[in-house]
Amino acid sequence: MGIIWTIIIGFIAGVIAKFIMPGDNEPSGFILTTILGIVGAFVATYLGQSLGSYRPGEGAGLVGAVVGAIIVLFVYGLVAGRSRRPI
């Protein structure tokens, strides 16, 4: 059941992050939105453990996953924006 909950929470976090930070060149689709939320949760967990907000073995919740997904979208926008500019 843990993997199913991870996918569900990842999808919800990805949808909320894309709603908060819309963009033209962001990844779209069910699978990419879910991956965005899951990667956001990993980013939030890593940053939270580095800053001391989470203990080792403790993961980020929905709010942390949304914040992490927004960070991932921001970084993706910077990287994708640079590669699409004409030289």
TrEMBL record:
InterPro entries, alphabetized: Transgly_assoc
Subcellular location: Cell membrane
Broad class of where this protein is predominantly found: membrane
Topology relative to the membrane: Multi-pass membrane protein
Domain of life where this protein originates: Bacteria
Keyword Cell membrane: yes
Transmembrane segments: 27-47, 59-79
Keywords for this protein: Cell membrane, Membrane, Transmembrane, Transmembrane helix
Family to which this protein belongs: Belongs to the UPF0410 family.
Protein's name according to its UniProt entry: GlsB/YeaQ/YmgE family stress response membrane protein
Organism per entry: Bradyrhizobium barranii
